[in-house]
Amino acid sequence: ITPDKLTTKGPRSLSKLTIYSRQLLTEEEFNWLLKEEVHAVLKQLQDVLKEASRRFSMPTPGLESQLKQENFILGSSTMDQVKGVLTLQGEALTQADINLKVAKSSQVLHFQFREDKQWKLQQIQDARNHVNQALQLLNSRDESYHFQTGAEVNKLMDAVMLQLTRARNRLTTPASMTMPELATSGLMKMFTPPMPGDVMVNFYINLSKLCLTVYQLHVLPPNTTKNFKPAGSSVLHNPGAMFELNNNRFEVSHVHKVECVVPWLNDTLVFFTISLQLCQQLKDKVRVSPGRCLCHRSTVVVFSSLS
User: Membrane-spanning regions, if any (predicted)?
Assistant: First the structure.
């Protein structure tokens, strides 16, 4: 295209040149985005998720004893019926010392983990595994890899976001259990002295908190006229919840819940939020292919030049 042709064709030709120039510029920008900026964001994501993974303190085989042990005190108030000291080492509760003040009694029951036992917190283990899967996805596209389309970037971001969402959900959504499931879980067999038949405990993670719940039960008489309705699955059962186990019917008489914040879990949730935001921002930048985006922009230019 020469200058004389531009002057003889009037506004319409100027409009076409503007469209053509913008098209070239936009395609160049988009190629730069795919080649340079995408990898810059992927590097950011890797750095953030490595920090998250480091918080989970994955033990080296044979060196588990070198993992940092953290003690948490639950139920420090004088009003708390339950007090506990829990030792967390990575994903495992290695020690638990629980005192329960029995309702309507001055009796205090004391339980602790047997020395040969530790309890794996499945939520932490699952969350860590999802973070590592997200890192593997990012590592599969190193700096030498050239993304061809925005759709390819979106596909990777969707896969990473799925793993991060699952990791976050494992920490924010404790597993629901029925009372019989809790009563027959391996957790009940970890204590010395053994838990009495009218006491049950549960440990779980809720957001950044380590939670301990203790249930006190009473046996319903076989000839009771009370309407028996077994409780369903729940994270936290309320007083009055009923269930049947080994031909006996029970009712929850008291529920005691104590909790404390685990700082590194809070850090991890922040890292998840930052990572998900980075993924979404990158998806927003490449959400429309250059062609579709240019058609929209070209139409705007044409109408403005002909008006």
Answer: none
Distance between CA atoms of residues 157 and 251, nearest Å: 48
Alpha carbon 140 to its chain's center: 22
- Structure confidence at residue 5 (pLDDT): 41
The domain locations on the chain are 1-59+66-175+262-307
Torsion, Cα of 193, 196, 200, 202 (10° steps)? 10
| CA–CA separation, 196 and 68 (whole Å) | 32
Measured distance CA(15)–CA(27) in Å, rounded: 18
Q: How far, in Å, CA of 144 to CA of 288, rounded?
A: 24
How far apart CA 152 and CA 102 sit, in angstroms, is 60
Q: Residues near 214 by Cβ (< 8 Å), separated by ≥ 6?
A: 81, 82, 98, 100, 199, 200, 201, 255, 256, 257
Determine how many CB atoms are found less than 10 A away from the CB of residue 76: 9
Q: What are phi and psi for residue 41, nearest 5 degrees?
A: -70, -40
Residue with tokens 């989970």: 56
299-301-302 Cα angle (round to 5): 65
Peptide bond into 193 cis (omega under 30): yes
Identify the segments of the chain with pLDDT beneath 70.
Answer: 1-25, 27-34, 36, 58-66, 76-79, 225, 288-307
Residue type, 227: N
